[in-house]
Each structure stands twice: as C-alpha cells, then as structure tokens.
Amino acid sequence: MSVTKPEAIVVGAGPGGLTAAIALHRRGWSVLVLERAATLEPIGAAIAVAPNGLRALDAVDAGRQLRDSAAIRGAATLRRPDGRVLAPTSAGAFVERFGEPMVVAPRAELMRVLLAGLPGDALRTGTTAAGVRPGGADRRASVTTTTGETLTADLVVGADGIRSPIRGALFPEHPGPRYAGFTTWRAIVPHVEVVPGETWGRGLVFGSMPLADGRVYWYATANRPAGVVHGDERAELLRLYRDFHAPTRQLIEAATPEQILHLDVHEMAEPLPAHHRGRVVLIGDAAHAMTPNLGQGGNQALEDAIELADVLTGVPAGKVADALPAYTKRRLAHTSEVVRKSRRLGAMAQWEGRGAVAIRDGLLRVAGRLAPDAALRPLDSILGRRSPDGAV
C-alpha cells in the first residue's frame, strides 16, 4: 500500500527557506519552493556563518563544505578611527569557547551548497505569493500567487523576508519591522591586506573580513534618517570615512559603485505573538528581523529551519496544526532575546556623542586588558546553541 507524502510549500528561496526545504525533504516530505525572483542571484555580498549556524547546516550535511572558508585565522581587532586598538579577539579563544570558527563566505557559495541539496524539481522561480490561508486541523493551508493560482499544502513555510506578505496576512494587527536608525553598505572587493575586525567611530562603523579565495568583504554603517540615498554611494562613503585608518579608503575605492549594496536596517522591535498560525509557520526575517550587529540574522533562520523539521518529525499530515505550537515555544523567546541583544550592541556601536563615545572606548580598552574574552561571554547562549541531535 502506498503512503502519500505530506506536502510543504516554502515561500522564499533564501538560506532559511532552502534549508527548511532540504530538512523537510530528508524527513520524507514533498516540498515546493516558490521564489519571486526570476533567477537566484545572490544578494548581500557575503554572509557570516557562526558556530550555531554551522551546526544547523551540519544537520543537512552542508556545514562541512563551508568550514574551509573560515575567515578569522589570526587576531581580530576592534579599533578606533585612528587605528588604536580598543579590544583584541583571538580566533583560538573563539574556537575554544564555541567549538567552531566564524565563517565568512560569499553568499553565492552558501546558496550553491544549499541548492545542491534540494530536489531538482522542488524550486519554482518567478512566482510571487500574494496571499495565504492558514488552514487548520481539518483543512490544508493555501497560497495564492499573483497570477491567480491557488496551491494547497499540509504546511506553508513563510521564509519571505523582512517585508513578508505572509506575516502580514497572519498577523495584520502587528506593526511589523521598524527602522533601526542606521543604514548599511556592503561589498566584496579584490585582495587588500587587512586585519579582520571592526572600527567604531562616532555614529560610524567600518568592518572588513578576508574571504578564503583572497577577496575581502567589507561593510559600513552610519546613523541617518531612513530612505536617504546618493547618486554616488562610493563618494559618500569616502566622505564619511575619510578620517578612518588604512586600508579603509583603499577598500572603498576597490569597489565599483555598482558593487556596493546599500540597505537601511530594520528590526522586529515588537515580537510577534507567535511564529505560526494554523498550518503556516514563519522563519528568518519574516519572523524576527534583527540588526546585523551580532551577525545572527541568517544563522537564526538556519536554526529555525532545523528546529521546524525536528518539531514535525513523525507528525502525520493531519496533525501539523497541532504540532506547530511547539515550534513557537522553542523559537519565540530565544529569537526575541537575540533581537534585543543585537539591538543593544548596535546602539552602543552607533553612539555619536563625543562624551558617550569616549566613555565607551575607555570601557572597551579596560575590558580588553583585564578580560580579553569578555566580549565573547554574552554570546554563549547564542553561538553555543546546538540544533537538535538527529533532526534530519
């Protein structure tokens, strides 16, 4: 007697959505991934995969392929704009504490690894989800596309990003993400000799990390009102960071204006009441968008995907709605805390008052001398987290 596979529709083909699709597929689900873009062009330059993200990827046999991209091989530093060190970070201490390195890899590489684990017929590009019905214990969920097509499934995974239409349909009263008060620029450039780390100025941050292939990923943040753009973002960056130590200017000049990705930062300051409704579940930025200061946005999405697969292990199609409250219980409180910690770090990094910055820098120098690993301790509950054993 044949057994019908439970069916899942995943909306969004980012790292979280693809990992969820792979994890469910490996648990015997039939999966369909809907992606609005016509082609999967990587967006975001590079992605930092932290130890918790690597362990989540291990659950779908994808972590090993990224470990050779470990970026921080020596000391990383937090500096002032004049180049003086505020606090060092040892790669050895990082690995000793968390068991894994911090991997910074081109987003294209992570996408390549994940797409290789997806069934060949599971991805449908050029398809935009316009609406969703959550279903319930006695009826399947459905997704309506902008072409008027209606697709039904036992489970719908909303991995459709920070402006998630699925989240808006599930929780129309929720205010959604808010502007965090600063904007970002990112680029990958040809080889420039750099010391990994960040430089904190007054309302300005500049960071750089070497990639395994010799190129360098850099990023910058600045306080400003939302929606401000310039005809030449590179020229604006050169103006903003003109007093930052070398090789800041060289890194900015190495990027063509077309290579620089500029995005305002938004966060889910008010947590959702739940990460599911009926047979629909939210993962990644759709559920808990956060500032980039802890580098955890993508990593939390990877954790979401594996936790979801674990919650649904052995659950028959008709019991999906009954199982999803356990997913919210596992993820809501934890991701809300990560959002808060990232916000607090971001707020301190973006201080711009002269007195406040002087106090901040003084405290960082003292902490760096007295307790070199002090900056790592608050991350234990995040970077040390492990995905469920045998989830997929």
Polypeptide structure, described:
The chain is of the alpha/beta class. It has a domain of about 220 residues: 3-Layer(bba) Sandwich (FAD/NAD(P)-binding domain), CATH 3.50.50.60. Helices cover about 35% and strands about 25% of the residues. It has 13 helices and 18 strands. β14 and β15 form a beta hairpin. α2 packs parallel to α10. The chain starts with 6 loop residues before the first strand and ends in a 9-residue tail after the last helix. About 45% of the residues are buried. The mean pLDDT is about 90.
What's the gist of this structure?
With 392 residues, the protein is of the alpha/beta class. Helix content is 34%, strand content 23%.
Task: Write out key terms for the chains shown.
392 residues, alpha/beta, 7-stranded mixed sheet, 13 helices, 18 strands
CATH architecture of the domain at 7-69 and 102-177 and 268-350: 3-Layer(bba) Sandwich
Largest sheet: 7 strands, mixed
According to CATH, what is the topology of the domain at 7-69 and 102-177 and 268-350? FAD/NAD(P)-binding domain
Mean pLDDT: 92
Q: What is the CATH homology-level superfamily of the domain at 7-69 and 102-177 and 268-350?
A: FAD/NAD(P)-binding domain
N- to C-terminal distance? 25 Å
